[in-house]
Amino acid sequence: xxxxxxxxxxxxxxLCAMLFLQVTLGPCxxxxxxxxxxxxxxxxxxxxxxxxxxxxxxxASLDSVIAAMDRAGYPLPDKPPDETFKSVPGMSKGSDGAVxxxxx
Length: 104
Known about the structure:
30% of the residues lie in helices and 14% in strands. It has 104 residues and is α+β, with helices and mostly antiparallel strands.
């Protein structure tokens, strides 16, 4: 299934509903979704492995989201979510226990 849906600033509820369905049903049907705001300041990639990838224009925005997620009890993972997931650099912790920042 392929396609695109456009939302404007007044469609917040509809966008949230679509993302909720993606998070809850996407893994069951192996459907991924990509969200790009009009100003292209970020890209959210919600994949069927129950993983959300993000790209930001600047490091400060990424650092802010990582800190907010950590404060909310959602730290960055240190291992793949399942055996079919293709690991990327930084997903495993080094001998010092720190996560390699190269994948951020």
